[in-house]
Specification:
Length: 351
């Protein structure tokens, strides 16, 4: 058993989903069809499909065998992820995803023929992106009805999806507010738990377990595994966001600095830095035009203060908690090996 089993089958399911949505949209209006085409282009442009893979992995780990029957639930996990990415890009004012224009970026180009005023064009393009994200939330629920499962199982999976949406929304709000609310009111671990672990690990894994009929005890243990792994993943991502090699990650290592994002690194720095270093840090951190040289000053301060090492230690701490939870799961060794692979892919990264 491996994490990437049934990847091709999932891609076919995803393609069929878009064929159906485009055919339906075409009956309404060409402009609506165009929105779905832009969504399809974005979704197909990249991504690891980690969440549907987790759903299928957990399903198989607990004895599930009818992959075709539960593929729509795996699809729902990818759709909710894509909706969150679209909304997150709106929040962050980003116009690129996977190296291509996201929905906002694409519509800024499309609307340039019709709307001369940049501020108005920005408003209309973000409106289109907001609607696209909303469509995928609706679709995430709708696809679940395609599966031949009992009403109790369907209700349980939809409840998990609802919880994921509520929790990731809370996490996004806290992530927005942590940079300007009084220090200590919100902490990076809480943000990681609700913004990342919620819908990226807990929801997908528990959905698979529920579909396979895992016991309540096993679901509780799996939740611990998913929660701690999700936090470890986010902390690793925070480190990469500042220290990662852009040519390897494909992500900017200055955007978090320019944004003034309070990550586990910055949280620890504020708690342990001296007045002189803090003054230097604050003179650069959050500056949207921060230079490469200034970004290096921030990195050096994070290393010298111990914040960099502390963040790495936190990744290891939560990874260890996930491994401990994994050992308690009543699944076979093949499944445990795949769950271990998931830990490694989520946390063993170059930083």
């Amino acid at each position: 058993m491996q994490l990437h089993d049934h990847a091709d089958q999932f891609e076919k399911t995803l393609s069929l989903f878009f064929e159906e949505q485009l055919a339906s949209a075409k009956t309404i209006h060409p402009n609506y069809e165009l929105l779905w085409l832009q969504i399809q282009k974005l979704v197909k442009s990249g991504g690891k499909r980690l969440r549907p893979k987790m759903t299928l992995l957990a399903y198989r780990a607990y004895g599930g065998t009818d992959i075709a029957a539960v593929m729509s639930f795996a699809l729902s996990q990818e759709l909710i992820h894509q909706s969150m990415l679209i909304h997150d890009d709106i929040i962050d004012n980003d116009t690129v995803r996977h190296g291509v224009p996201n929905i906002d970026g694409a519509y800024r180009q499309l609307y340039s023929k019709f709307v001369a005023n940049e501020e108005n064009r920005h408003h209309f393009s973000q409106s289109a992106a907001l609607l696209a994200g909303d469509l995928l939330i609706s679709a995430a629920y709708k696809t679940m009805f395609a599966a031949n499962v009992s009403s109790d199982t369907l209700n349980a999976c939809q409840q998990l999806l609802s919880t994921s949406i509520c929790e990731v929304t809370a996490g996004e709000l806290l992530d927005n507010e942590i940079s300007f609310k009084p220090k200590g009111e919100i902490n990076a671990t809480t943000v990681a738990r609700y913004k990342t672990a919620s819908y990226s690990f807990i929801g997908p894994l528990l959905t698979g377990a529920v579909l396979a009929g895992a016991s309540s005890k096993e679901q509780d243990l799996l939740r611990v595994y998913a929660e701690t792994l999700g936090i470890a993943f986010q902390f690793a991502d925070d480190i990469i966001g500042t220290f990662g090699d852009e040519t390897v990650t494909g992500k900017s290592n200055k955007s978090d600095i320019r944004e003034g994002k309070i990550t586990i690194l910055v949280e620890y720095f504020y708690e342990h830095s001296n007045a002189k270093d803090l003054a230097t840090f604050n003179s650069i951190f959050g500056n949207s035009s921060c230079s490469d040289k200034e970004a290096d000053i921030i990195r050096n301060l994070l290393v010298a203060s111990g914040a960099y090492q502390k963040a790495k230690d936190k990744v290891l701490e939560y990874s260890h908690k996930a491994r401990q939870a994994l050992e308690q799961l009543e699944i076979d060794q093949s499944a445990k090996a795949a769950f271990t692979e998931l830990i490694n892919k989520s946390t063993v990264r170059d930083f």
